[in-house]
Amino acid sequence: MKKRKPISKVYCMDCIEYMKTKPDKFFDLAVVDPEYGLGIAKRNGSIGQKRGQGKLTKYKSKDWDAKPPSEEYFKELFRVSKHQIIWGGNYFTNYLPPSKCWIVWDKKQPEGVSFAMAELAYTSFNISTKIFTCSRALIGNPVSNNARLARKYIKRHVTQKPEVLYGWIYKIFAKEGWVILDTHLGSGTNRSAAYKLGYDFYATEIDEEIYQDQEVYFQEECKGIISIGNNIQLIQQSLFDN
Description:
By secondary structure, this protein is of the alpha/beta class. The chain contains eight helices and 14 strands. An eight-stranded mixed sheet has the order 2-11-10-3-6-8-7-9. The chain has a two-stranded parallel sheet with strand order 1-14. The protein has a two-stranded antiparallel ribbon with strand order 4-5. Helix 7 (about 190-195) links the parallel strand 10 (about 180) and strand 11 (about 200-205). Helix 6 (about 165-175) crosses helix 7. The radius of gyration is 18 Å and the shape is globular. It starts with a strand and ends with a strand.
């Protein structure tokens, strides 16, 4: 039996302005990955490992990571959500209450690489710290010189996290029927994981280019809508009742 199709609404707008439109504790869980203020978005480049994929995996230099979120952001986030999971929480400890439970994403990176070997997420849950181990290189190994496969497996955003990571988070921390918030949608892997698991999901993304890219990914990955040019679309069977 098919499940009810979940709500998945995203907006290209400022996250604080969006949260101001919502009543207290409207969302059951906020799973967010705000800017850390490290300037990583200024980086140009590609992580495409196979010939012909560079055009699909290049990042344009942007300035959205020039500074960390404001105190107002965290006040609104805690006001509109009952529970929080905040990536990069180690950078925002002056705004966050103490927590027993942190998430550690062990990336299986070797010593000496330029990227962090692990990332931390703050949580508001009163359970023990959880560790998720997943190598991004392992995820990318199945990719061939194919545009659709590259969109599915290779990073399209400089701070993109794997969809399997978000799926693991929901299976551990979320309960059936919960409503999810993401204030910094980015690549949209959080959105697709929530949709596949049946959670109603709301999000914002302020950058128009990034917003449009995640929308294409979501339509292909979750709704089976594939644009093949000349305004022609192929539509695969839905996972849910219409």
